[in-house]
Structures are given as structure tokens and as C-alpha cells.
Design a protein that fits this description.
Layout lengths: L1 H7 L6 H40 L12 E6 L20 H6 L5 H15 L3 H8 L8 E9 L4 E10 L12 E8 L1 E7 L10 E9 L3 H4 L3 E8 L7 E9 L9 E6 L12 E9 L4 E10 L12 E9 L2 E7 L10 E9 L8 E9 L7 E8 L5 H12 L5 E6 L3
Parallel strand pairs: 1-6
Antiparallel strand pairs: 2-3, 2-9, 3-6, 4-5, 4-7, 7-8, 10-11, 10-17, 11-14, 12-13, 12-15, 15-16
């Protein structure tokens, strides 16, 4: 009775009023905490998200002429080379598909990614970042089949972000088209001079080819860098089984280029060191040893020696070479060569290391090459930068030989 009188007495707060007050207090506290976190997130993540939006690019949408070429296949038919069709504009559906779109979901995904980057373990991810595969670019092409004319149509449209294979920091790319396992009948695009984002827009016809045989083939595209004075350098390849493609209509693909496989496995590795002396304007290249070299002779061995070329821009300046090691796939050379390189020319300098197989009766064979400069592959660039960062100190590194 006393408690009832107390609760009902004038001026005393009721139980409901006390409960509402407590709820309001808790709500205000949560709001303050959330606002603080929101401002913290904005300060930490806002700038980086803004930059990520600003750096998003879109594929180019240039157009060119369409050229039709045809090839006669073993299945029969007639080989025809038709004239280029001027002014024909290809329908490029993938350009629209690949354009970036900004939305609320993109913002959420970006913020989530940034949170993961700030979380523990991100240092380990960054440590493995340099181990990613070298980017070889990508290629766009279309493929379809005409049942009435028994003709397979392959259209090579364009490529993007191709690596530089020439000393001038560019490439002269073209594409070879095969229907594997047939390697005798191939078609080629034109060469696009000094272009890392070439547009071909060329159409190729494989005529007189029954559908039941088409679906047993693999479309193989090989992108190469044209070289007037030596063998063309492979850039990358794409293969797609035609039984996995709906050939009833033209299908357009974007495919990442993969390293070219010549079916012969590894070419071996070479250990060499670089020593840069800025005061003497010189680089000392030491060819130390090789291991697991590819056997080039019939007897299952090779007679290796190493050529070292100093290149400035597109010009060959000086050449040195080691002695030949007879019948040895793991030779030890331990030979050093000095090259005069002024500091101001260092950025335009490339050192080409070529491991050769000596042949007495015919032309010497190339086992593999290494291009050393500030714009080569990731491993080569690392060696070049380490050499500059540690002047007058020999910096040794193993390199995988490439075709």
C-alpha cells in the first residue's frame, strides 16, 4: 500500500517514464558510436575508394576495316581469298558488356574489400603479390558456323595490353589461326606496327568443312611479335575446343593470353650477375652457370655457349660470347664481360642474353633468351633495379630461359 502511494503520488516518475528514458539513453549512445565509426570509415576508406573509381578504364571501341580470307581444308571445298570489305563496322557486343558500372553494390563490395585489406593477414597477401603471373594481355575474337555453306568463320577483332617485345618498348603483333590438330593449314592476320593495343578486324573462312568434323577441332590462336631480322617472338596463345561453343550463331569472346607452349617443356635456367659502376659508366655481366638446358642434339644433349648483346634503343652496340661447353646440359661458364654505358643512356639500354647450341654442320640453334632492362618481365626488371640500387656490387639471380 505504501509503495502504491509512492508510485501514484504527484511529482514521482512512473515506471513507464523511467523505461522510456532508459531506451532513449541507450539509443543516443548507439547513434553516437555509429556516427563515429561512419566518420572513421569515411576518413580511412573514402579517399581510396574515390581513387579506385577514377582509375577505372573502359576498353577502346575503335573500328577498322574487315578483311575476309578463306582456306581450303582437307575435308574438301575451294580456297577463296575475298577482297576486303571497306567500311564494314563489326558488331562489338562485348564492349558494352565490359564497361564498368557504378552502383550501391559496387560501393559495398569496394568497402568490404578495403576492410579486408585493413584486416590482419594483408601483409602476407602483399608479400605474394609479386609472385603473380606475368600479364600477357588479352584478345577478342568471334567464331560461328554456316550450315548451308559448310563454312566456319573466325573473326580476329583486337588485342589489349600486349607486352613489349621490342627494344623500343613496343611490339609488332600479328595472329596465327589454327584448327588443331591440323598445323599445316593456318591463316594469319596483318602485322600491326608498334602497337600494344592492335585492331585487326579481319575475318577468316574455313570452307567446305563438315560440322561433324568442326566440333572435333580446337581453335588455336597464337599472337606473335613480328621480327624482320630473326625469328618471330611468341607473345601468348588461346585455345578453345569448338565442341564447347554454340556455333549456330557468331559468339564473341575475350580471352586472356597464356604463355606459349611449344610442347618441348622447359628450356632451362641461367645464373648470371650484374654489377653497375656509375663512376666508371660500366656494367659487368657475369655468366656463371646454367642448369637443365634443353637437349637440342639427336644424342639427347647440347653444346651450349652464351652470347651477350648490348642494345641501345633499337641498335646493336656490342657483342660478347663465352666458350662452348661440349655435351653439357648443366655447364659452368664463370666468364665476365664489361660494357661501357653512360648513365644518361641506361634507361634506353637492354642486355640480351642468348644461350646457343653449337652445331658444326648446320646453323646454331637458340636454346633460350633473357632480356634485361627496366621494362622487361617482372624477374628481369627486379634484377635490373637491384643492380642500380646496389652500385659496385655484383647482384646474382637465376633466370628462366624463354623462346
Amino acid at each position: 500500500m505504501g509503495s502504491d502511494l509512492y508510485l501514484s503520488s504527484p511529482g514521482a516518475p512512473s515506471r513507464d517514464v523511467l523505461l522510456v528514458s532508459a531506451i532513449i539513453t541507450v539509443s543516443l549512445s548507439v547513434t553516437v558510436v555509429l556516427c563515429g565509426l561512419c566518420h572513421w570509415c569515411q576518413r580511412k576508406l573514402g579517399k581510396r575508394y574515390k581513387n579506385s573509381l577514377e582509375t577505372v578504364g573502359t576498353p577502346d571501341s575503335g573500328r577498322g576495316r574487315s578483311e575476309k580470307k578463306a582456306i581450303k581444308l582437307p575435308a574438301g571445298g575451294k580456297a577463296v581469298n575475298t577482297a576486303p570489305v571497306p567500311g564494314q563496322t563489326p558488331h562489338d557486343e562485348s564492349d558494352r558488356r565490359t564497361e564498368p558500372r557504378s552502383s550501391v553494390s559496387d560501393l559495398v563490395n569496394s568497402l568490404t574489400s578495403e576492410m579486408l585489406m585493413l584486416s590482419p593477414g594483408s601483409e602476407e597477401d602483399e608479400a605474394h603479390e609479386g609472385c603473380s603471373r606475368e600479364n600477357l594481355g588479352r584478345i577478342q575474337f568471334s567464331v560461328g558456323y554456316n550450315f548451308q555453306e559448310s563454312t566456319l568463320t573466325v573473326k580476329i577483332m583486337k588485342a589489349q595490353e600486349l607486352p613489349a617485345k621490342d627494344f623500343s618498348g613496343t611490339s609488332d603483333p600479328f595472329v596465327k589461326i589454327y584448327l588443331l590438330p591440323d598445323k599445316k593449314h593456318k591463316l594469319e592476320t596483318k602485322v600491326k606496327r608498334k602497337n600494344l593495343n592492335p585492331h585487326w578486324n579481319e575475318t577468316f573462312l574455313f570452307e567446305g568443312f563438315p560440322y561433324e568434323k568442326v566440333v572435333q577441332r580446337i581453335l588455336y590462336l597464337q599472337v606473335l611479335d613480328y621480327d624482320r631480322f630473326s625469328r618471330n617472338d611468341p607473345i601468348g596463345e588461346v585455345s578453345i575446343p569448338l565442341n564447347k561453343v554454340d556455333l549456330t550463331q557468331m559468339q564473341t569472346f575475350w580471352k586472356d593470353l597464356k604463355p606459349c607452349s611449344d610442347g618441348s617443356g622447359s628450356r632451362g635456367e641461367l645464373l648470371l650477375s650484374l654489377c653497375y659502376n656509375p663512376s666508371a659508366n660500366s656494367i659487368i655481366v657475369s655468366i656463371i652457370k646454367a642448369r637443365n638446358l634443353k637437349a637440342m642434339d639427336i644424342g639427347g644433349t647440347s653444346d651450349p655457349y652464351v652470347k651477350v648483346w648490348l642494345m641501345y634503343k633499337d641498335k646493336r652496340v656490342e657483342k660478347k660470347k663465352t666458350v662452348t661447353m661440349k655435351r653439357n646440359l648443366n655447364p659452368i661458364f664463370n666468364e665476365s664481360f664489361a660494357f661501357d654505358i653512360p648513365t644518361e643512356k641506361l634507361r634506353e639500354t637492354t642486355i640480351i642474353i642468348t644461350v646457343m647450341d653449337k652445331d658444326r654442320l648446320s646453323r646454331n640453334d637458340v636454346i633460350g633468351k633473357i632480356y634485361l632492362s627496366w621494362k622487361s618481365g617482372p624477374g628481369e626488371v627486379k634484377h635490373w633495379k637491384d643492380m642500380i640500387a646496389r652500385p659496385r656490387q655484383p647482384v646474382a639471380q637465376w633466370h628462366q630461359l624463354k623462346a
